[in-house]
């Protein structure tokens, strides 16, 4: 038996009741994208997405899958917060954010540890704008460009001609060591870039994430039961590479789908856990509804190939970890319901509004017969 879980990163299904606390009242990633662009998603509709409460833009077709939505319990709206909850991690405190930038005392400790005389920027900033606005100064000084966002991230940009890639990664590893405990930053991200002044561009293929080590979770439970767990795309990064028997890198959504399909054709029993990040990284943050709609349509067109590849005992989950409404103000994630579609033997009808994302991981544990006594209620 294979369980395939596709995370449609940021494809939220409308704002959560507590969204006003996050400044996100009115956000609705899926519906607003469809309304703005007119994109048609017939295969998602056939799975029952149009029946989910709050989804008003897709037709209600006879559903071929179980359908529902999930509330996020964890106090946040970022990748780590949502993905950790998927596997049964409930956070007592949110990951820390730094809207005013990081403390100078911390940065001086880091700078001395990595042997540089300073840094540039140190505040929330667009990554593409950071290298355009501070790239010249970086070339002149060799100082790392440090910035953050509304999420709990410490991002370090450096030009490949100035800072070798291994050195940048080492800088980030040192930052990861420092950003634990009271700082509790979810992710340190290496952001290498290249090109000449005026034409700087990020090397997304060389990006590397350094996540906090997660506490025991469903992935560990599966591993301890002998289940093969394959992380595809940025999934292993989110969990600090813990709990995986294999890791498969991807270049974009299409590559992630193709590699997931190839894994489905292999002879093994286990979990294939894939993140499709383009919705979020390429289109949500950039407030590009046309690009977002195009990515949704590409996924929709690929779905028949995934469905055809399912064996009689296999399961396919389509889920989302937060919202990132490309029609909303700002550039940040939005606090929304997560998607829940489940294709599997005997699975059909309304799965309801789940009280936590952790129901997903609890269901995986039940399917594989793994022992899990943490958060979440299995769907079976």
Automatic annotation (TrEMBL):
Q: Which cofactor does it need?
A: Mn(2+)
* Name used for this protein in its record: Phosphopentomutase
Annotated function: Isomerase that catalyzes the conversion of deoxy-ribose 1-phosphate (dRib-1-P) and ribose 1-phosphate (Rib-1-P) to deoxy-ribose 5-phosphate (dRib-5-P) and ribose 5-phosphate (Rib-5-P), respectively.
Q: Which reaction does it catalyse?
A: 2-deoxy-alpha-D-ribose 1-phosphate = 2-deoxy-D-ribose 5-phosphate; alpha-D-ribose 1-phosphate = D-ribose 5-phosphate
GO BP terms in the entry:
2-deoxyribose 1-phosphate catabolic process; 5-phosphoribose 1-diphosphate biosynthetic process; metabolic compound salvage; nucleotide metabolic process
List the GO molecular function terms: magnesium ion binding; manganese ion binding; phosphopentomutase activity
Which Pfam family is one of those matched by this entry?
Metalloenzyme
Q: In which pathway does it act?
A: Carbohydrate degradation; 2-deoxy-D-ribose 1-phosphate degradation; D-glyceraldehyde 3-phosphate and acetaldehyde from 2-deoxy-alpha-D-ribose 1-phosphate: step 1/2
Instruction: Tell me where it mainly resides.
Output: cytoplasm
Binding locations of Mn(2+) 2 = 280, 285, 333
Where the record annotates domain Metalloenzyme, the positions are 1-369
In the record's cofactor note, how is the cofactor described as bound? Binds 2 manganese ions.
Quote the HAMAP family the UniProt record gives. Phosphopentomut
Cite the EC number: 5.4.2.7
Keywords per UniProt: Cytoplasm, Isomerase, Manganese, Metal-binding
Cellular component terms per the entry's GO annotation: cytosol
Give compartment(s).
Answer: Cytoplasm
